Amino acid sequence: MTTAAPSPVTSASTAQPALHALNLSRVYPSGEGQVQALAPFTHTFPPGLTAVVGPSGSGKSTLLNLLAGFDQPTTGQVLIGDTNLTLLDESARADFRLKHYGFVFQNHNLVSILTALENVEFPLTLAGLPPRERMARARELLALVGLEARGRHFPAQLSGGEAQRVAIARALAGDPGILLADEPTGNLDSKTGELVLSQLQTIARQGRTVVLITHDRDIAALADHHLQVRDGVVGVVD
Ligand SMILES: Nc1ncnc2c1ncn2[C@@H]1O[C@H](COP(=O)(O)OP(=O)(O)OP(=O)(O)O)[C@@H](O)[C@H]1O
User: Fold this and answer.
1) Where does the record place the ABC transporter domain (predicted)?
2) Computed over its alpha carbons, how large is the radius of gyration of the chain?
3) Ligand 1 mean position to 73 CA, how many Å?
4) How far is the CA of 20 from the centre of ligand 1 (A)?
5) CA 128: distance to chain centroid?
6) pLDDT of residue 192
7) φ and ψ at 70, to 5 degrees?
8) Which fold has domain 19-237?
9) How far is CA 11 from CA 8, 179, 213, 226, in A?
10) What is the ipTM of this complex?
11) Ligand 1 atom nearest residue 29's Cα
12) pLDDT for position 195
């Protein structure tokens, strides 16, 4: 008996590599001295939704930037499956990110002159997918975030929550195993924020590793796993 392959939209199609932070730390120069933005920290981010909370300036974005390979650690490594992200040069890191990571930020950063559908299609165009395939996939992704009826709307015609859900659909275009979200609900009222969070939960339940930075404790409470950052020290909250 043959089993149909799972749709790439409903489950992350690539084998799910674990995301490991190994003795990861970051020290920044500050005036004459230094600031330890992140103290050495070892953790495996499991598939599912991990919320990272902590006060302003505690080191959350530093952690996310290191996990993404946007910034290089002072000590330690980021391992994704067999790949040591920290040892890759900048262009190889960018390449790896394109294939394995999706990003959602506080501002949805949608292109204002493109429709919702075209915004989701955009990374697929860059990836060289033929027009028919990329439109079909963009439609599936919009449906995944419950916005199949909004494909022709421009960002200015969408609510903040809808625009953020389009941004989530766009982040999933490359079928990444890892989704990093920095305050994606920061500009939304609490009800809309919970709706966006529920989309992230759906994505996480498909086997992806989703890391969510948030100031909002109610939003964080809905995650599967919890980390707290204080003065650069990361702790697991049970
Ligand atoms: N490029 C940099 N150079 C020097 N110091 C930095 C740099 N980036 C961050 N820092 C410092 O590192 C510490 C952690 O900053 P980080 O941005 O990670 O905090 P955060 O928890 O994300 O804050 P927020 O919630 O306000 O975004 C802060 O003291 C910050 O001033």
Assistant:
1) 19-237
2) 18
3) 14
4) 22
5) 22
6) 84
7) -70, -30
8) Rossmann fold (3.40.50)
9) 5, 13, 23, 23
10) 0.97
11) 4
12) 85
- Distance from C-alpha of 78 to C-alpha of 97, rounded to nearest angstrom: 12
DSSP 151: T
Taking CA atoms only, the protein residue closest to ligand 1 atom 11 is 37
> Measured from the CA of 54, which atom of ligand 1 is nearest?
21
Which amino acid would we find at residue 57? Answer: G
CA of 80 to the centre of ligand 1 (A): 24
pLDDT in tens, 143-177: 988 899 999 999 999 999 999 999 999 999 988 99
Quote the crossing angle between the two packed helices 116-126 and 160-171, to the nearest 10°: 20
- What Cα–Cα distance (Å) separates residue 194 from each residue in 16, 103, 201? 26, 18, 10
Signed CA dihedral, 153, 154, 156, 158: sign only? positive
Going by C-alpha positions, the residue among 116, 232, 103, 105 that lies closest to residue 171 is 103
- Residue numbers in the chain where pLDDT is lower than 50: 1-11, 13-15
Q: What is the DSSP string of 98-118?
A: HHHEEEE-SS----TTS-HHH
pLDDT score recorded for residue 8: 43
